[in-house]
Design a protein that fits this description.
Layout: E1 9-11, E2 17-19, H1 23-51, H2 56-61, E3 64-67, E4 76-81, E5 84-90, H3 93-101, H4 113-116, E6 122-126, E7 149-153, E8 158-161, E9 166-168, E10 180-184, E11 187-190
Antiparallel strand pairs: 1-2, 3-11, 4-5, 5-6, 7-8, 8-9, 10-11
């Protein structure tokens, strides 16, 4: 018989050693519970962090590719990027010359035309008026293009030139130029 406070080893029928007071079993249960708890914590943390990643539809909207090969000089199209209209205009030589000449005009938000385009014939702008977020007219040939040949916002009377710069009306800034890159001569990626 063992003295109080001491344990004796016995041999189990399977040949394993075990303390009479069950310390081997208790250690096993303690280690198992700790391992399961740690695994559960890691999996819960992983799921939580993974849930913060943008969803597939958000990633798809983060950039838009536009094929420009079918466009003719003077033509404009509107595409959607991040839920906003983006104006793509294939400028004529006259529009380019007018935009460059307007570099010397008294501009509310001064910016050279050459800083607003990567290739002079392609003008890419976010089609949202900088006054109150309306969509200016000027993409269709039948639309009013304002006093400066670009875009006109009829809601409050903002006029933009052929480079998308504010020239008249309440809008405080030029139409925004989004981040874009030419993938080749006929394709751009916006975003």
């Amino acid at each position: 018989m063992a003295q109080p406070g001491t344990s004796t080893l016995t041999t189990s029928p399977g040949g394993g050693r075990q303390h009479e007071d069950g310390t081997a079993r208790r250690d096993f249960l303690y280690l198992s519970a700790t391992a399961f708890g740690a695994t559960g914590a890691v999996l819960t943390g992983w799921a939580f962090i993974s849930s913060m990643n943008p969803s597939a539809d958000v990633l798809a909207l983060s950039s838009t590719e536009v094929n420009l090969s079918a466009m003719q000089p003077g033509q404009a199209i509107t595409v959607v990027w991040r839920g906003k209209p983006v104006f793509v205009r294939y400028r004529t030589p006259e529009e380019i010359a007018k935009a460059k000449a307007d570099d010397k005009a008294d501009l509310r938000d001064p910016e050279l035309d050459s800083k607003r385009v990567q290739k002079s014939q392609w003008l890419i702008l976010v089609g949202v008026c900088t006054h109150l977020g309306c969509v200016p007219l000027g993409q269709k040939p039948t639309d009013p293009h304002g006093d400066f040949g670009g875009w006109f916002c009829p809601c409050h009377g903002s006029h933009y030139d052929t480079s998308g710069r504010i020239r008249k009306g309440p809008a405080p800034k030029n139409l925004e130029v989004p981040t874009y890159t030419f993938l080749n001569d006929t394709t751009i990626r916006i975003g």
